[in-house]
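Notebook entry, structure prediction.
Reason for the run: the old model in the group folder had no record of what sequence produced it. Starting over properly, with the input documented here first.
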Amino acid sequence: MKNFSSMLKIVPTVILTTTLMACATPSATLTKDPNKPNQSFFYTLKQQNTPIKVHLSSNKKRYKLDEVMQFHVKSNVIGKVWLLQVDANDEVSVLYPYQPNQNNIIYQNQTMTLLDPSQQNDEFYASSPTGVLSVMAVVAPVHKNLEEIFVINDNRITKVAFDNDTDWGFDRIDLMVKP
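New structure, fully documented this time:
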């Protein structure tokens, strides 16, 4: 399983940034493309009838290369959160947690900022390839692991949870990375 993305790089830093909520500008969207199976998977994945509600936002919808990116995740339940992404080259990766055994607990009705430089010494930076970047926040009960919902093998993401499995939820946003 890949833990680092070619679209986003995580670099230790101590720079504080100002968080802005997502702005209402036209954004790129993924399309169902048979030549890009991971993008098609993200595009066609449907939310099951689940009591878990997840909201994902970013400080912007469009980024320039090397610009700091932050993500904001909110869930109506306590659980574990994962950020997955598919970049413009159809590469899939887990953005967060990016270290083994990293605490990825999200608390009920509280917004979690990833990565918040005031809390951690890391930040996400936009990097190549440029184009559409799709990010998904997945929230599941604390006892569940990501591998019980999705498997990433040979750069291919597959859902392994049953369709009637309603103890996890997700939200997805599409962003644009420009030179």
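Summary: The mean pLDDT is 80.
The old model has been moved to the deprecated folder.
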